[in-house]
Amino acid sequence: MTANPIGVLKSVIGPDEVHLYASSEHHRNFLDCIKTRQPAAASPEVGHHATTTCNLVEISARLGRKVKWDAQAENFIDDKAADRLLSRAMRAPWRL
How far is it, in rounded angstroms, from Cα 52 to Cα 58? Predict the structure, then answer.
């Protein structure tokens, strides 16, 4: 493992400093939080952004080119071909 500055690898977080939420397994944490109504290790927003990033990489790879993403609007900038890959057609009678 490396870090910059390297000294952070040897530092110890004190009892009065900020500690990150410990979760060894997200699925279990999610189910436990449903029961206890406690906040989960990863918020829905964090999960959404992480999944979006993976989906953007997949769409770029399928198209074989770079894409430009508008994070506010959650669509591609001037790219109808990429926008079409954001969802797929639903089977009848299902619709949104």
Answer: 10
